[in-house]
Amino acid sequence: MSNLLEVKSLHSLYGESHVLHGVSFSLDPGQALSLMGRNGMGKTTTLKSILGLVTPRSGTVSFKGENITDLATWQRIKRDIAYVPEGRGMFHNLTVDEHLQVAARANNQGENVWDYDRVLDTFPRLKERLSNLGTQLSGGEQQMLAIGRALVTNPELLILDEATEGLAPLIRKEIWDVIRTIKDSGISTIIVDKNIQVLQGLCDRHVVLVKGKVVMNLDAEQLQSNFAEVEGYLGV
Ligand SMILES: Nc1ncnc2c1ncn2[C@@H]1O[C@H](COP(=O)(O)OP(=O)(O)OP(=O)(O)O)[C@@H](O)[C@H]1O
């Protein structure tokens, strides 16, 4: 197969405010791609444009060779794309158990590698909190639940927006370890995060956004040799 995901010349706006200016990149099956950039550069808008939560004015999004640009978000999700949004998106009236039970399904290939039990084995903390409401969990536990809820759909592509933001170092490490396990299980990922060191060790491609434009698109080796320049774009 060629690309799993191809984003071509996306222009996205909020009202009159033109935020994405021709964003293009692609992702091969099984790869992890980092999307980096300072605050407000258009990372979340790019993710939302891929998911159909923002409607681009022009440009295309293709998944497994199919042009999905005009599909509704739920139709994209049904094609085995899962999203872990910034802020985690807990359902206020659902327990931990219900968050996972409601979402769990085999994917379009009939695969159910990440079933309810495996997700709970991966996140033992959630096992102890099954009857708590999602909103009663700590920030780290909520993040684990948000990732778990995405995983039980057995996605081919998992999109993570700021999955470690605001978390204590130990919890961050736990989340990164799980993201690595997810990658090793063959799921493709797009990761927005600020931790360039961790992203460097994890991702196969790195896309840097500045004011809604892709200024760098590097493989792992190229990131190594252009590290200082990337850091400069990120202001670190
Ligand atoms: N719903 C919205 N309505 C209007 N403007 C928005 C909206 N969401 C984002 N923006 C603006 O679009 C620009 C890009 O925002 P976006 O959230 O995509 O950036 P980001 O790179 O993900 O940044 P952050 O790291 O702060 O989340 C910013 O100037 C932001 O203020």
UniProtKB/TrEMBL annotation:
Keywords: Amino-acid transport, ATP-binding, Nucleotide-binding, Transport. The keyword Iron does not apply. It holds the Pfam family ABC_tran. One of its GO terms (biological process) is L-amino acid transport. The keyword Chaperone does not apply. CDD domains: ABC_TM1139_LivF_branched. Residues 5-236 form the ABC transporter domain. Signal peptide: none annotated. One of its GO terms (molecular function) is branched-chain amino acid transmembrane transporter activity. Belongs to the ABC transporter superfamily. This is ABC transporter related protein. The lineage of its organism: Bacteria, Pseudomonadati, Pseudomonadota, Gammaproteobacteria, Oceanospirillales.
